[in-house]
Design brief:
529 residues; alpha+beta; 2 domains; two-stranded antiparallel ribbon
Length: 529
């Protein structure tokens, strides 16, 4: 099975598999994840007490908590950084591995429940490679989801066997998911609590005991892990209902695939951002077959679990998520309810697996059963075939940015920057990637939240490099300016460079080129004007 899932992963991600050190996903969030993984590996050795005081949005603190810290993946991958493996190679290798591990974990769950290897293979494909995965191709934390099927597998063993060990193992896997993806961890905890109550619905005392054993490890982990996030919340506040509404799934979203899906990409306009939730025609048909009478306890349970997961995914378009937002604090920090589709996929994989078993049982000869199963699995794999956008990465930046490692007092500002009403330009995320070569503090930054001071910076830098903007940079502590030439803004670069080099408070550190474009490293001397 491992070889099969590796083959599927490589078929979909050949571009990064063949050039892992010089290619990356086309969206800026990929660079953001490279930076997060590299920061954890760097800071856990240098000063672990200030792990969350990342080098962006200077002088803000706890800036790693402005988005998902992906702490556990960062710790697990840190040795590769220490060995000198290229950060892009680490990221791309981990990304491919996550697709494979997600599929293997779902395979183990579905095979355990159905007793069928073919059903397990189908379940692995549905959970590991559905369009949902490739809609989030550049969101690394959304790919670290193999803990969920493992938690569900341990949960089933706990419910049927009653052993405390399996209850605690479920909680351990849920805690690992919290430390890998806060979104998925919070959704999983709510989902596990719900299905535990469903399983023991006639025995409230047993339900409370099981829920406590299952959830305590994850709740304790989330409580400790949330401390820097609570500190950041004091400054940034909660996600507003207006933000959440736009990322709450609708019925049409479940018939929409992202544009990178080869077969169904034309359905992309049916869905909204991060809301392309179609899981394929074969999976949908087998889901219906698997959910049909006569019922079993496991299939009824996963029908209820599917209904609850759908309620989470539709967010403010349904009643349950609004109650959770009002009464359960962690939900106030989540912007995209549609990401709960990962739990929809768990039950779809299970029920479609049961559906495949039913179809096979309806066939007479063994050879016919094998051919039908192979055909359905093969069509499912073809439905999921995707071509995620990948772009090349210039490799010569490291030789330039290592110069800043010798500037021990350096606080860096990189220009050009965007304007406050176009944050989606994500200019700063590449500056963050470059900072992995020196780890000096940056005034620039990108994350799930933007502090008010950064927005103010963008407003003030609209007139850069005039006297007022330089004075402001001095006031906030900037000591190094890195000025980039852009192909479409050569005249602006030339004018800025001439103005800066005439200023007596500016000293040249270095001049070079990146991808054929000029870049200046300048010292900004302290003092008022």
């Amino acid at each position: 099975m491992t070889a099969c899932f590796i083959a599927v992963a490589l078929a979909n991600m050949w571009a990064i598999a063949t050039e892992p050190a010089t290619a990356i996903g086309g969206h800026g969030d990929s660079f953001f994840s490279v930076w997060r993984l590299a920061w954890i590996a760097h800071q856990i050795v240098i000063d672990p007490r200030h792990l969350f005081d990342a080098n962006i949005f200077y002088p803000e603190r706890a800036t790693l908590a402005y988005s998902d810290a992906i702490l556990l993946p960062g710790l697990l991958l840190a040795p590769l950084h220490w060995l000198g493996v290229h950060p892009l190679t680490i990221y791309n290798g981990a990304l491919i591995a996550c697709f494979v591990l997600n599929a293997l974990a779902a395979y183990a769950l579905v095979r355990h429940l159905t007793g069928s290897t073919a059903a397990g293979l189908l379940g692995g494909l549905i959970y590991g490679f559905s369009p949902h995965r490739f809609d989030h191709f550049d969101h690394f934390e959304m790919q670290v989801a193999f803990w969920i099927p493992l938690a569900v597998l341990a949960w089933h063993r706990a419910m049927t066997g009653g052993r405390t060990r399996d209850h605690l193992l479920t909680g351990f896997f849920a805690a690992c998911q919290v430390l890998s993806s806060i979104y998925y961890g919070i959704f999983l905890m709510a989902w596990l609590g719900f299905i535990t109550l469903c399983w023991h619905w006639r025995r409230p005392r047993a339900a409370l005991r099981s829920a406590a054993l299952v959830l305590v490890p994850a709740v304790a982990t989330l409580g400790i892990y949330s401390l820097p996030y609570l500190e950041a919340r004091k400054r940034l506040g909660d996600r507003s209902p207006g933000d959440i509404v736009g990322y709450s799934a609708t019925a049409l979203d479940f018939f929409s695939s992202p544009a990178n899906n080869v077969l169904y990409g034309w359905t992309e306009p049916l869905g909204g951002p991060e809301r392309h939730l179609f899981f394929g025609a074969i999976a949908m048909g087998l889901l219906v077959v698997g959910a049909w009478r006569p019922f079993s306890r496991v299939r009824l349970l996963h029908l209820a679990a599917l209904a609850f997961a759908l309620q989470l995914a539709i967010g403010f378009n349904g009643p349950i998520y609004r109650l959770l937002y009002d009464w359960v604090l962690p939900f106030r920090g989540l912007r995209v309810p549609a990401r709960a589709d990962v739990l929809v996929l768990v039950s779809v994989a299970v029920l479609a697996g049961f559906g495949l078993v039913r179809v096979m049982e309806g066939m007479g000869r063994r050879r016919t059963r094998v051919l039908v199963a192979a055909a359905l699995i093969g069509i499912t794999a073809s439905e999921y075939f995707s071509r995620p956008h990948v772009r090349p990465v210039d490799g010569q930046i490291s030789s330039l940015y290592r110069l800043l490692g010798d500037e021990r007092d350096a606080v860096v500002f990189e220009w050009p920057v965007t304007v406050p009403w176009r944050l989606y330009d994500m200019v700063d995320v590449e500056y963050m990637y470059r900072s992995t070569m020196h780890w000096r503090p940056l005034l620039n930054g990108y994350s799930g939240y933007y502090p008010p001071g950064y927005i103010d910076l963008l407003y003030r830098m609209r007139s850069f490099p005039d006297s007022r903007s330089l004075k402001y940079l001095q006031e906030v502590g900037a000591t190094v300016l890195v000025i980039h030439e852009r192909r479409e803004r050569t005249a602006g670069f030339n004018a800025a460079a001439m103005r800066l080099l005439r200023d007596p408070k500016i000293r040249m550190i270095a001049e070079g080129r990146e991808d054929g474009r000029r870049v200046l490293f300048l010292k900004l001397l302290p003092g008022g004007r």
